Every structure is written in structure tokens, then in C-alpha cells.
């Protein structure tokens, strides 16, 4: 080894290579050292340029979402309005003046009705286009206690639909923007502002009583599906009255806006996704919603896709304000969120004041679901006898009536996957069982291993043919159905399988 080293060091080529390597290392070290020193110098200069904190500086901590946690530097007019509001909330405001301002509502709702509204406590979750208009209408109508919850701040693009925001409010939290402007209109209103993100983990705190008064109503004006579902499920489970606004984006026809039970809302992707996830939590109806039945069509606005340039930059999820929030542009005509918000406020005002209004009807199709479940039970028994010569006395299937309602309404939209018809519907296996589908794990108990993702919706006539030719016969699905039908069913089943993770 030593002789090899001595020979190598005597070689001229080896000496040149060694010299070059050492020189390169020295030069690289010098360059990196210089760059590091220059960065340190620049950082030091930048820090030195920051003035010391003095009484003239207004320092505030940023929120976890990167927004200013403080509200704004108030103008002289703002300061006067806030001082008046502070006195009014302490009772230093003539009640006759309040009643005069509410005179039109008072003669409409009567004195007992307006008294109930003035004593009401309403929570607004989401203070954008819909929530801001609902809040403004409630405050103007006399509702004296409002809790506002929203993590976001006013942007330039908010101004086409926000009820009260101005250019001066851009960059400030939406909850404080609403409070500041509405205090100038109804200074006696008690606003509790929470510049926070609503979530399932914080629901109990954010929907808690105000001064021991339970909320009379909660407004759901959230456009994020997971947060919306968490809010509605919490209110439903805890018997808190809630009304939800479905999607106003891509809508333009005011004559198609309705208020009804969530089970009856149609032609709205946000409503469908919300209904679907709520059903997975056992909530199928009993929540009033505002929705539009306007259908999309040629020439109408649609959800805008991200450009190829944005995809090429990397993870598009990083473009969102928060994880799992949408990052695509949702076209919104400024008038539609306002109408949704006013309908929401109108329902709350009538409900709290006790003014007559029609009951929010649901589809009430439980009888139909029960019939479909019985038909599925009989079909499973026939298949077990025909394919596996089983005694089916006492056979049970692991499907409930709520499961049937979920499949019919949310997965198959109340229509046959074969013909699109909506009458005489049933559920039936799509594929022929390859082996005995009776569950052997519990001796003495007869039940099948049937799963929801194995079922497809057809009319009774189509199901009879399907059972005879595919499930009991020798034909493949390709022999009975065309490629378009097979693709349609497979797509719908794959979509449902993705939703199984929420169960």
C-alpha cells in the first residue's frame, strides 16, 4: 500500500490532479464563505433599518392565517361611532329612538314580535357575501346580540358582493369590518367578533351561550364543505336551530331561489356534497336551507379551472388559504349572495318573531325506502337459494332504510342507472356473486356480506331482467348493457367508493 502511494505521488499526472482538486476545494470554500458573509451583512443591514419601537408605532400580532390581528387605525368618524356604540350598549341611548328606527318592523311583526327579535341572540358563521347581508339585515331589523365568526379578511374581490365593506376595509378581518360599519347604523347592537376558523374541534366553544343565553339561531354561510358539514351536524345533534346557505356561485336567476329542507335541495353541487356527507353521519333532513334550482347550461358560468402554468409550479394545494380549501376561482354574480343572505335573515326574523310562515317540507319518502329495502331482502333470499341452495329462513341483510335513502337520493339521484326513469325504483346487486355471500363468522346467525357499493338503482322491470340474465343466468354485463351504460355505472360506483372513507 505504501509503495503504491509513493509511486502515485511521484507521478506528474497524479500531482496535477491533486493540485487541481485542492485548488477547486479552496476556491469553492472561498466563494461559499463570501456568499454567506454577504447574506449576513445584508440581514444585519435590514435589521438595522428597522426603527426602534416607540409610542408612534402601533404593533400588532398577526393571526395564524397571516392576517393582521388588530382591526385598523380608526378615523375620527370611527372613534365617534365606537364611543356612541359603547354608550348605547350600556343603555345610554333613548329606547324611543330605537323603536322609531324599527317602526316599520314593529308594525309588521307587532310589539311582542319585535320584542322577541330585540332579545334574540344569533350566531353568523361566515361573513362573506351571504353572511354579511344576513348580518346587516338582522342588525337593521332589531336583533341586538350577534356573534360573528370568520377567519378571513376583506379583499378587493370581496367588494362585488360584501354588504358593507369599502376600499378602506381591504386587508381587515371581515368580522371587524361588519362590526365597525353596522355600529354606525345600530349602535345598541352587541357584536361579539371572533376572527377564527370554525371547525369541529372548536364548535362547542364558538357556539356557546352569550351571557348564559343560548343561541336562538345559527347561520351557516360557509363555503368550505368540511366546515359546513361540521357546523350543521353539531347544531343538529345539539338541537340548535340552524339555517344553511347553499351555493350562490354560478347562479344568476333570482326566480329559482327557494327555501326548504336540505333533503329537498336540488341542482346544486355544494348542496349535494353537503347532503351526502351529512347522511353518512345520520343526518338526512330537518335542516332548512336556501338553495337555487337553476341548472347549468351552454353559455352559463362554471367553476374556473386552474391554468396549466399553476399546475406546472408544483403543489396546487399550497395556493389555498388553508389546507383542503378550494383554490379554483368560483364565478359569483354579486347580487346572488345578497339575495341568499336576505332570504336567510328573513326566515330567522319570521321564526323568532313568531310570524306565520309555511313549514319547511322534506321529501317524506320513508315509505318508498322501506319498500325498496323489503324488495332487496327478497332478492337476496332468492339469489342465495338459486346460486348456493341455502336455507334463507331468517336471513338478514346489513343494509338499513337510511342506507337505502342515501343510495337512492345521493348516489343515484332518484333515477335508474339504466334508463334514467324515476318510478318503481329498486336496488339490486350489479355483479354476479363469485362465491357464497352468506357470512360464516357468526354460527347460528344468517346474514349476507352485501355492501352498499355493490348495489345499483334500477326500475323493477329492469331489475327482473338483470336478475334473470346476469345474477342467475350465464350472461356477462357486457352481453346485456352497452358500453355507455357500463361506464356510467362504473363511474358512479367508483365515486361512491371514495365517499366510503367518511363512514
Automatic annotation (TrEMBL):
Note the Pfam families from the entry: ThiF
How does the record classify its membrane topology? Multi-pass membrane protein
One Gene Ontology term of the biological-process aspect is: cyclic threonylcarbamoyladenosine biosynthetic process
**THIF-type NAD/FAD binding fold domain: residues covered:** 105-361
Q: What GO molecular function terms would the record report? A: ATP binding; tRNA threonylcarbamoyladenosine dehydratase; ubiquitin-like modifier activating enzyme activity
Query: Which cell locations does it reside in?
Result: Mitochondrion outer membrane
Please give the InterPro entries that the UniProt record associates with this protein.
Answer: ThiF/MoeB/HesA, ThiF_NAD_FAD-bd, Ubiquitin-activating_enz
Q: Which UniProt keywords apply?
A: ATP-binding, Ligase, Membrane, Mitochondrion, Mitochondrion outer membrane, Nucleotide-binding, Transmembrane, Transmembrane helix
Its Gene Ontology cellular component terms are: mitochondrial outer membrane
- Give me the segments passing through the membrane: 14-34
Looking up CDD domains in the UniProt record yields:
YgdL_like
Where this protein primarily resides, as one coarse class?
Answer: mitochondrion
Which family is this protein grouped under? Belongs to the HesA/MoeB/ThiF family.
What is known about what this protein does? Catalyzes the ATP-dependent dehydration of threonylcarbamoyladenosine at position 37 (t(6)A37) to form cyclic t(6)A37 (ct(6)A37) in tRNAs that read codons beginning with adenine.
Tell me the protein's name: THIF-type NAD/FAD binding fold domain-containing protein
What species is given as this protein's source? Clathrospora elynae
Amino acid at each position: 500500500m505504501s509503495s503504491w502511494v509513493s509511486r502515485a505521488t511521484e507521478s506528474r499526472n497524479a500531482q496535477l490532479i491533486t493540485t487541481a482538486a485542492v485548488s477547486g476545494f479552496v476556491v469553492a470554500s472561498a466563494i461559499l464563505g463570501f456568499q454567506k458573509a454577504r447574506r449576513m451583512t445584508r440581514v444585519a443591514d435590514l435589521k438595522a433599518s428597522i426603527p426602534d419601537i416607540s409610542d408612534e408605532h402601533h404593533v400588532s400580532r398577526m393571526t395564524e392565517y397571516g392576517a393582521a390581528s388588530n382591526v385598523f387605525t380608526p378615523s375620527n368618524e370611527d372613534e365617534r361611532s365606537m364611543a356612541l356604540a359603547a354608550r348605547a350598549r350600556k343603555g345610554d341611548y333613548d329606547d324611543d329612538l330605537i323603536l322609531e328606527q324599527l317602526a316599520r318592523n314593529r308594525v309588521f311583526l307587532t310589539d311582542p314580535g319585535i320584542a322577541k327579535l330585540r332579545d334574540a341572540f344569533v350566531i353568523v358563521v361566515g361573513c362573506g357575501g351571504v353572511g354579511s347581508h344576513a348580518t346587516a339585515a338582522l342588525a337593521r331589523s332589531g336583533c341586538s346580540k350577534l356573534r360573528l365568526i370568520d377567519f378571513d379578511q376583506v379583499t378587493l374581490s370581496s367588494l362585488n358582493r360584501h354588504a358593507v365593506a369599502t376600499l378602506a376595509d381591504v386587508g381587515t378581518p371581515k368580522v371587524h369590518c361588519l362590526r365597525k360599519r353596522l355600529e354606525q347604523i345600530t349602535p345598541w347592537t352587541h357584536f361579539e367578533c371572533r376572527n377564527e376558523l370554525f371547525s369541529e374541534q372548536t364548535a362547542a366553544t364558538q357556539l356557546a351561550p352569550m351571557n348564559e343565553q343560548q343561541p336562538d339561531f345559527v347561520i351557516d354561510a360557509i363555503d368550505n364543505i368540511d366546515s359546513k358539514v361540521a357546523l350543521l351536524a353539531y347544531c343538529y345533534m345539539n338541537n340548535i336551530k340552524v339555517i344553511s346557505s347553499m351555493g350562490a356561485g354560478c347562479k344568476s336567476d333570482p326566480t329559482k331561489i327557494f327555501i326548504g329542507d336540505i333533503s329537498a335541495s336540488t341542482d346544486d353541487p355544494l348542496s349535494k356534497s353537503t347532503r351526502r356527507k351529512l347522511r353518512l353521519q345520520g343526518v338526512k333532513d330537518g335542516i332548512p336551507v336556501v338553495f337555487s334550482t337553476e341548472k347549468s347550461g351552454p353559455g352559463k358560468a362554471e367553476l374556473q379551472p386552474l391554468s396549466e402554468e399553476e399546475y406546472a409550479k408544483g403543489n396546487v394545494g399550497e395556493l389555498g388559504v388553508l389546507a383542503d380549501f378550494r383554490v379554483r376561482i368560483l364565478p359569483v354574480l354579486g347580487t346572488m349572495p345578497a339575495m341568499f343572505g336576505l332570504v336567510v335573515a328573513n326566515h330567522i326574523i319570521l321564526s323568532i318573531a313568531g310570524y306565520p310562515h309555511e313549514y319547511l317540507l322534506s321529501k317524506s319518502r320513508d315509505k318508498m325506502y322501506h319498500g325498496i329495502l323489503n324488495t332487496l331482502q327478497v332478492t337476496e333470499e332468492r339469489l342465495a337459494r338459486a346460486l348456493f341452495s341455502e336455507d334463507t329462513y331468517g336471513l338478514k341483510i346489513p343494509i338499513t332504510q337510511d342506507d337505502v335513502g342515501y343510495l337512492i337520493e345521493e348516489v343515484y339521484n332518484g333515477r335508474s342507472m339504466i334508463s334514467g326513469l324515476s318510478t318503481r325504483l329498486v336496488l339490486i346487486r350489479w355483479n354476479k356473486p363469485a362465491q357464497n355471500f352468506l357470512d360464516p363468522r357468526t354460527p347460528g346467525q344468517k346474514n349476507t356480506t352485501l355492501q352498499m357499493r355493490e348495489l345499483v338503482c334500477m326500475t323493477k322491470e329492469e331489475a327482473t331482467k338483470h336478475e334473470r340474465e346476469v345474477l342467475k343466468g350465464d350472461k356477462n354485463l357486457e352481453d346485456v348493457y352497452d358500453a355507455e351504460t357500463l361506464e356510467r355505472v362504473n363511474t358512479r360506483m367508483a365515486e361512491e367508493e371514495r365517499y366510503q372513507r367518511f363512514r
